[in-house]
Design brief:
About 55% of the residues lie in helices and about 15% in strands. By secondary structure, the chain is α+β, with helices and mostly antiparallel strands. It has a single domain, classed as Multidrug-efflux Transporter Regulator, Chain: A, Domain 2 (Orthogonal Bundle), CATH 1.10.1660. A 3-stranded antiparallel sheet has the order 1-3-2. The longest helix is centred in the last third of the chain and has 14 residues. Pfam families: HTH_17 (PF12728). This is Helix-turn-helix domain-containing protein. InterPro entries: DNA-bd_dom_put_sf, HTH_17, SinI_DNA-bd.
Length: about 60
């Protein structure tokens, strides 16, 4: 079963970017996240959405 949500580190690993770059995507609203308690999590499908949006701009 695939993960529904990823930690910031897991999402950064999957996108092959640094944590800093991932947080930049989050702050610029290019990557959707959810907050559960104090943890910020990235829905797995949000990675694909982010890539598609970035491809449209490129």
């Amino acid at each position: 079963m695939s993960d529904l949500v990823l930690t910031v580190d897991e999402a950064a690993d999957r996108l092959r970017v640094s944590r800093w770059t991932l947080y930049t995507l989050i702050r610029s609203n290019q990557l959707r996240t959810v907050k559960i308690g104090r943890r910020r999590l990235v829905p797995a499908d949000a990675l694909a959405e982010c890539i598609r949006a970035l491809l449209e701009v490129a």
